[in-house]
Each structure stands twice: as structure tokens, then as C-alpha cells.
Amino acid sequence: MANYLLMLHGTPWSNQTVLSACQFAQAALESGHTISAIFLYQDAVLNAINTLDIPSDELNGQSHLLQLKNEHDIKLMLCVTAAEKRGLTDKNIHSEFTISGLAEFAELTTQADKVIQFK
What we know:
Blueprint: E1 3-8, H1 16-30, E2 34-40, H2 61-72, E3 75-79, H3 80-85, E4 97-100, H4 102-111, E5 114-118
Parallel strand pairs: 1-2, 1-5, 2-3, 3-4
Helix pairs in contact: 1-2
């Protein structure tokens, strides 16, 4: 079975990208594979905002990411540089997300069988 590392670029709302990544992760897990982490990069860091309030008739990427975290203990990591550029700090991100750097992402790539990007 493979160990996957997912890199996410999509915003948390009105975008299929986050939902597609979560659906892929769920299918991989059900097939016996592992997901070492989901790394949020560029605008995807907005998925970690702790005051995110998305209307019920729009896609809510954050809720899908949190469900994966809670059900399968998948690390939800966001790029510190991308977060800072968008005004995010450890004070305004959801507690289930971890701020990290590209160095940590690079380390995870050495342990993964496959790295998949969702843009």
C-alpha cells in the first residue's frame, strides 16, 4: 500500500479543489493506503481561518478537511510564508491546523510514495 502526501492550493469556498482532495484521501484510506499529511499552500491556507463562516449552500472545504483530521488523524499543515502573506498567524487559525514550513513539507516528501497536488 502507498503512503500519500497531498498538497492543496484551493480556497475553502466555491471551489471543487478542496473537496476533490478530501474525496481522494477518503478513497485512498478506504483502499488501505495512508495519508501522511495534507499541506495547504498558496490560497489553500485560507482553509485554516478559525472564524471561517461559509453559507450552507456553498462548498465548505474546511469542514471536509476537519472531518478527515478527526476521523483519521491526518496532519493538516499550512505553509507559514503563504499564511503570513494572507494575514494568518497562530492566533487566527483553527486549532486543528499546524503552521509549518516548506522544509517540513520537503521532509515529508522523502517519506511519501507519491505526492499529489490539487490546484
